[in-house]
Write a structure and sequence with these properties.
heterodimer; A: about 300 residues; MetI-like fold; 12 helices; B: alpha+beta; Rossmann fold; OB fold (Dihydrolipoamide Acetyltransferase, E2P); 6-stranded mixed β-sheet; about 25% helix
Chain lengths: ~300, ~375
């Protein structure tokens, strides 16, 4: 209760005003700091990919020559790598990404449908297991896959006398394993947002389950499927650790190639390639998010 | 209105809920006539929507039979049943235009595209929404979406139209308009409507007959007037409109369906015995509608006559509510009643002050004796 004759506690009002100002400053400072830590290293990389000097400590002016070098077949100070090798690695990346994405998208979508619509025993457990590849350390998954393939191929060699060597098939199989989870999670979220009465409405209007799926469920979940596929493709394109552990001879993907370059020295060309990869990934993820967002508003 | 269009015969529906069997619909039998506007009324969770879903074919009964136009529906999936549903939240396909939404059902029947387009157009005109065929559902208002859902179901010319709280999402004014329009539309098309609602007023104003459900059981089926004037159970009397409940002792039963009841304050009166009243019941509950109770001054009050119950009362409180005034009166022995007196304005002296004594009276037929 305020003292008689005192309508408002002026002291407290002043103190709270000061607190509010401090709070506002904090609200501005906190994200500023967070974004600085997030983006500073990446910005430096992008900046130095335009640096007119081989130095990584001083910026001597703007140039596009490192990007030019990539195209013009002059790679690195020692020119140990040619553009051709890099383009080959890029093609490998695209090949692995496309095939792994296609398989993971089909399988992941089917799992998501089963999770969203099915009623079966152990569904909760299966759903939890689906998240496993997302949360376990990538290196753990990489090593487990490497061991798995070795055991599998040893066993095949023992049974049939044929020895299988790691190659594209192992990289693709490995990429499919982690991508299934991501696709399933994205599609599952989409299905969870979908009004289940829409399928009932389709059946009510005379559509059998097959027609109801293709004419109502599938078009409505398609944005989720596309968005999941783009996410999978991006993850596949960017993946280094798992690819490194499951690759064979002659299957170098772009991230593995860049790693190889780094072993020699950090050249401005590496900065340029990394920048290109980052831009490409950002565009793909951007499209994926846009599709998810646009779709969500109409469901 | 003679042949039975829909028959539910001893329908039971049980669900598994955390390892327990829950009975959502408990031995319900209903016959719905051809062309009837039939309302399934009850509080949420009473089993009315489950009953509708059983007819639609989205759920299968645990026991019992459903017949539509004499044909047993067992084993017939939703997409082969001659019924269509208007869903509570409309369930319009968001990726299709309004026209394609309406054409959907026709194309499933194999109607060719031109014919389907023509009929979709007619059906949009029927619900008074011409010219929105090219729009997507999300570009329409709630009321318009409601009409499109109706058009989409009616274009199939079903034997029975099922409506699941179709006006529930609309605001009050729009709901009133739609009630009127729906009723008119139903008369025009002559299709049997089965209408699920928890809104008693909606059921009373629209339906030819009402079925009242509670906790999975069917309590009473009858015309709105029967349900309102002759409730069979305490629940029905309580659920529909406002009712006074007074505990009483049943002293004797007459052949004319009336009985002598003594109240806790010693008052003796006659009341209509509910059809459902158990044969041996002694202690009963009297249900009397507030608007059936008249209040008069002692001087100039009509002399007590046969068929009228008249009691001394004291006015406890009065509440002006526009069309009526609600009086709370004490008839002795701590028994309080609510009486509603219409504000006709004809007799200024008809208003009573708090603390004043007066006579309350009602016709014996307005008091119904029910089991507790």
């Amino acid at each position: 209760m305020a003292a008689p004759g005192r309508l408002i506690n002026e002291g407290a009002l002043g103190r709270n005003r000061a607190l509010r100002r401090l709070g506002k400053l904090g609200l501005w400072l906190n994200p500023a700091a967070a974004y600085f830590f997030l983006w500073a290293p990446i910005l430096i990389l992008v900046l130095f990919s335009f640096n007119d000097s081989r130095s990584v400590s001083s910026f001597n002016g703007f140039t596009l020559k490192w990007y030019g070098n990539i195209l013009n077949n002059v790679m690195g100070a020692e020119s140990a790598f040619s553009t051709e090798i890099m383009l080959n690695a890029f093609r490998n990346s695209l090949f692995v990404g496309t095939v792994a994405t296609a398989i993971a998208t089909v399988l992941g979508t089917m799992i998501a449908l089963a999770m969203a619509r099915g009623r079966f025993r152990g569904k909760g457990l299966l759903e939890g297991l689906l998240f496993l590849p997302v949360v376990i350390p990538e290196i753990t998954q990489a090593i487990s896959l490497a061991i798995f393939f070795k055991v599998l191929f040893d066993w095949v060699a023992l049974m049939s006398g044929e020895r299988i060597f790691p190659g594209f098939h192992t990289i693709i199989a490995a990429h499919v394993t982690f991508n299934i989870s991501y696709v399933a999670i994205v599609v599952r979220a989409r299905l969870a947002d979908m009004n289940p009465q829409l399928e009932e409405a389709a059946k009510d209007l005379g559509a059998n389950p097959w027609q109801a799926f293709w004419r109502v469920t599938f078009p409505l979940m398609l944005p989720g499927v596309i968005s999941g596929a783009l996410l999978a493709f991006t993850l596949s394109l960017d993946d280094f650790v798992i690819t490194f552990f499951t690759a064979g001879v002659g299957t170098t993907t772009l991230p593995v190639f860049v790693y190889g370059l780094l072993k020699l020295t950090v050249t401005p060309e590496v900065n340029a390639i990394s920048t290109i990869m980052m831009v490409l990934s950002t565009i793909l993820i951007g499209i994926s998010l846009a599709i998810q967002g646009r779709g969500a508003s109409r469901i | 209105m003679s042949t039975a269009d829909v028959q539910l015969i001893d329908i039971v529906k049980e669900f598994d809920s955390g390892g327990e069997r829950v009975r959502a619909v408990d031995s319900v039998s209903i016959e719905i006539a051809d062309g009837e506007f039939f309302a399934l009324l009850g509080p949420s969770g009473c089993g009315k929507t489950t009953t509708l879903r059983l007819i639609a074919g989205f759920e299968q009964p645990t026991r019992g039979r459903i017949l539509i136009r004499g044909r047993a529906m067992q084993g017939i999936p939703a997409y082969h049943r001659p019924v269509n549903t208007v869903f509570q939240d409309y369930a319009l396909f968001p990726h299709l235009t309004v026209e394609k939404n309406i054409m959907f059902g026709l194309q499933m029947e194999g109607v060719d595209k031109r014919e389907a387009q023509k009929r979709a157009q007619e059906s949009l005109e029927m619900v008074r929404l011409p010219g929105v065929g090219g729009r997507k559902p999300h570009q329409l208002s709630g009321g318009q979406q409601q009409r499109v859902a109706l058009a989409r179901a009616l274009v199939k010319q079903p034997a029975v139209l099922l409506l699941d709280e179709p006006l529930g999402a609309l605001d009050l004014k729009l709901r009133k308009n739609m009630q009127y329009e729906l009723k008119a539309l139903q008369r025009d098309v002559g299709i049997t409507f089965i209408y699920v609602t928890h809104d008693q007023e909606e059921a009373i104003t629209m339906a030819d007959r009402i079925a009242i459900m509670n906790a999975g059981e069917l309590l009473q089926v009858g015309s709105p007037k029967e349900i309102y004037e002759q409730p069979n159970t305490h629940f029905v009397a309580d659920f529909i409109g406002e009712t006074n409940f007074i505990a009483g002792e049943l002293r004797g039963r007459a052949d004319d369906g009336y009985g002598a009841v003594t109240l806790a304050n010693g008052a003796q009166l006659r009341a209509r015995l509910a059809a459902s009243l158990a044969a041996g019941s002694r202690s009963v509950t009297l249900a009397i509608r507030p608007e059936k109770i008249a209040i008069a001054r002692h001087e100039g009050a009509p002399a007590a006559t046969a068929g009228i119950t008249q009691l001394e009362a004291r006015i406890i409180a009065q509440q002006y509510i526009g069309t009526d005034t609600r009086y709370t009166v004490d008839i002795g022995g701590g028994i309080r009643l609510v009486a509603r007196v219409q504000n006709t304005g004809a007799i200024a002296a008809d208003t009573f002050a708090e603390g004043q004594t007066a006579l309350v009276s009602w016709s014996d037929s307005s008091a119904t004796a029910l089991d507790h």
